[in-house]
Amino acid sequence: MRRQDIQLISRARRGDAAACFEAGRLYLEGMKGFPRHVPLGLEYLSQVETLREDEAQRLIVEALDLHEIAVHGRVSTLERAARFGSGEAQLRVAIWNLLTQVDQSEAVGWLRLAERSGQDGAKEALTLPASAVDSDDAAVLRVKALLGVPKIGWPELIALVMERALMRKEPRLLLRALAVSLVLGQLSNSTLADQVYAAISFAKSIPDVRITVDTKAIEVLLDDCVDRGNCAAALLLGQALSGNNVGSIGWDMLVQAPNRRKASALLMRAADAGYGEAWTRLYELHANNHSSVANPPMARFFLEKAAASGDVSAQRRLGATILRAAASLRDAEQGMHWLYLASQSQDFQAQALIRTFILPVQGCEADAARGIFEVAKTNGALAARLRVARDFGLTKLEAMTVDIVEGLRPWGLVVGKNPFIQHARLSSPRAIPALSSSTLQTLKRSVGYLADGGVQGSGPRDVELRHRAARLKQALDNHGLSESLYFAKASSDALDAMRGGPRWARQVKVQLDAAMGHEEEELG
Questions:
Q1: Three-class SS state of 413
Q2: What is the DSSP string of 176-221?
Q3: Among 434, 442, 256, residue whose Cα is nearest residue 351
Q4: pLDDT in tens, 279-315
Q5: For 198-235, how does the pLDDT look when each residue is reduced to its tens digit (9 = 90+)?
Q6: 144: Cβ contacts below 8 Å, ≥ 6 apart
Q7: Rounded to the nearest 5°, which phi and psi values hold at 411?
């Protein structure tokens, strides 16, 4: 720095008004050996701004672009210059308002003033189709018409506006800025790409979203995010490329056409990074028989991964898939496990499927509960069996023979092989899920009572069917209770169907189709 420059700074630091103004100008413009330093230049100017307001105001407007003015909180200075007749300031205030105000009326007023001041682009920004005058598309079209205006700092300004809209939760302004960002032609700008991803991530939760921009540009920007390690962007882009909407945003607003092979690779990347939803999307992609990447075994693998990650819809689908092909008790138990997990997350379709495994019992719950209370006074083990029988829809024979202690499962009850039925298939075990967590807790209390031994003994000491039947009849007669309050009635064929497998699947086709999302693929 030259000697005279050092002397200038020295005078400015002592408060000399002329020196402060000159130092501010030199730092803002970056002239005569002074590096351009906007914050320092504004600091010097602020010391004399009240004394030389017009000159300081003109200098700020001329030396800074719109992005710098906004970043340093000088929009009010720009507006004052616009009110004093600066056409350049009027045009830049119009641009700022178009990007930061939902109502375009004030921006249009500034555009008219800028047009009268002879500013290029103002007239074109005011000339719009009648159908678009008051829409968000109109604001985007107006800004597009002004992209040639100098001293704006467009990429940085749009990134700033998008960040501002995200912080203030202003979805219309966010999407408006997004639309402009995608026509700037600066697709290598990583900051802009990140803001585009953030905008789409936020906008997908907004109803009736419209993004009328170049989908190719969106895909390029999202690809840039993925290339820099953004696995959440990989999930978003993979979902769109697989032909699925991203929240409320239609896939065709984000990509030009589905590309299922690329989608599969992107979703796998997201899944490996811990995004559980990606496993579900991979399942849907590979389970579709019409997809170029259809692969039922892989689809089943992805579904299992999605269910294990906690995805409720995947848990329900996996449970339904296993149960509709169940050929053994082990299969049925596995299916019940996933279906019960989904039902506990208030998944109505899973709850509807669970009900198909429980036979109905008659009568009022209050009457049944009173009867159980009375029976428990003299025979706790029998009362426990009556409670379990009503909660799980057991037949009389099942209720009298089931080993409740051994049959307890984290999701419900297994009625073991019935020794009193000779037909092998009809005597097979049956898995019955709990309708709710409270039902399961009641079952656990019954198990605890029977396992510890109670009135009339526990399971191991109370095994003869005829003895139980006699005690049951005596207890019900003594208290005037009907068997229909506690025991379901069903034919052997009906019970057989309720063990799961193709026969059950045919009987509950409506509920099963709803649970599976109307898929027809057999995943094995």
A1: strand
A2: HHHHHHTTSS-TT-HHHHHHHHHHHHHHTTSTT----S-HHHHHHH
A3: 434
A4: 999 999 998 888 888 899 999 999 999 999 999 999 9
A5: 888 888 888 877 776 678 888 888 999 999 999 999 99
A6: 180, 183
A7: -115, -10
